[in-house]
Each structure stands twice: as C-alpha cells, then as structure tokens.
Amino acid sequence: MTTIGILGTGGLAALMVRGVQGAGYRLILSPRNAEVSARLAEEYGCEVAASNQALIDAVDGVFVSLPAATGAGELAKLTFRPGQPVLSAMAGTGLARLQSVIGPAQAAVSMMPGYANALGVGPSILCPDDGFWRPVLAATGPVIAFDDEAIFTAAATFGAFSGASFGFMAQVIGWFQAQGLPPDTARALVAATLRGNAEVVLRENRSLPEIRREVVTPGGISELLLATLEEHEALQAWDEGLTHVLRRIGG
Fold it and tell me: Are residues 150 and 187 in the same domain?
C-alpha cells in the first residue's frame, strides 16, 4: 500500500484526507497541529508521526500544505530521500524554490479548491505531470497537468476564483431570500442552476459564444441582466481581480 505523508494539518490537509478516503492510501499526518491531527486520526484512521522528519522517513510521497509564508523554510530543515516525490500546494512557491529546499527529492506543485476535493469533485492542477501524484489527486476529482510552469501559475489563479465564487453565490442567494424565497430554496436554486450550466459547458461540443447566443436571446431577461452588469463593469472586474492574484502568486 502506498503511504502518503501530509506536512501541515490545516484546512486543506483535512479536506485532502477526506478526499482520498477509500482510494487505498495509507496516510500519515505531521504533528504540527496536534489537535487537528488527533481529530483526523480518530475520524479517518490516519496515523500521526512523532515529528516531521519521522513522517518523511516513513512515507513514499510527501504532500505539503504548510503556510506559504514559512513553508519553504520549514522544508529546508528536513532531509528527503533521493527521488522521493514531494508535492507542494503552497501558493506562490514555485518549482525551483521547492526543489532548492527538498534537495534530492522530486518536486511537483499543485493547486486545488479544497472543499470540492473533499467531495471527490474538485479539479486539481499539477506541474509537471507526475505518475506518482496524478492518481492521488485523481481520487479527489479531475486532474489537469501542465509542463509549462508559467501557464501553470496562470491556471493556479483558479483557486482564488473558486473561493470568490462562494461570495458570488452568497450575494445571489441573499437577493432571492430578500424577495421572499426560503433560505434552503434560494440556496438550492442557485447551486442547481450553476451546476447545470457547468455541465452544459463540460458536455456540449460547442464554443461558449455559440452556447451564449442560444441562451441569451436579444431583448430577453438574460441580456438585461448582462447589460446591467456590463454597465457597472462587473464582469471586467473579474479580470482585474484575477490579474491581482496572478501578480501575487507569480512573485
């Protein structure tokens, strides 16, 4: 059985533990956050290492979800085996920086939304493509691999887009509630609408402009809503926000 070590036991680590349950991996957690590690061990049958170094010594591959600001420094204090697969989900830590602190191990970087991965439906991106980590990530949802790190970094902004989408949903759900819909009904209506539209984009073998022309009819209510958003540059603001994120994670 392949053994995966998880360095860092914050929110993402907990979600990854949930996501890979039942996929046949043995999981060992770092003792960094003793309370969270103990809870995950009890709920999901994980093991807790005596130290971060003991974890590295005991596992086949290491998944890193340490805080981005201090994670590279913590990794530099540890000793990895030659060729040991190490996957970092620390935003802003590139391949070169990761490789420089893990020595002879094999570096790869990833980004994922987290919560959706816990349910097995969240996408992950991976750079470079890696035969060890691809099946691990696939247990939590679809995997998209990149060989070009610059393109990977641009794609990694989807993590921010994913989180921001909850703010968008909360705004629209709140509007429906203000019109008198019960909270559960408003929530179900918005979530089901977005899930349905996402399936259209994934399944239909047509371009998005073609689909949009079909669903946004001239003079219709969808056109009215889009015109209002465009009048306030609400759609263009997404471009600006994503550009800010890209500048941060791209250094």
Answer: no
E runs forming strands in 30-103: 47-48, 61-64, 85-88
Q: Is 100 helix (H, G, I), strand (E, B) or coil?
A: helix
Domain final residue, candidates 110, 130, 155: 155
Do 137 and 181 reside in the same domain of the chain? no
Indicate the burial class of 88 (C-beta count within 10 angstroms; 0-12, 13-18, 19 or more): buried
Residue of 98, 107, 48 whose CA lies nearest to 73:
98
The H or E element spanning position 128 is none
Is residue 217 a contact partner of residue 225, using CB atoms and an 8 Å limit?
no
Helix (H, G, I), strand (E, B) or coil at 96: helix
Q: Report if pTM > 0.70.
A: yes
Summarised one tens digit per residue, pLDDT across range 111-155 is 998 899 999 999 999 999 999 999 999 999 999 999 999 999 999
Average pLDDT, rounded, for the chain? 95
Same domain? For 184 and 204 the reply is: yes
Instruction: Among 137, 155, 173, give the residue marking a domain's end.
Output: 155
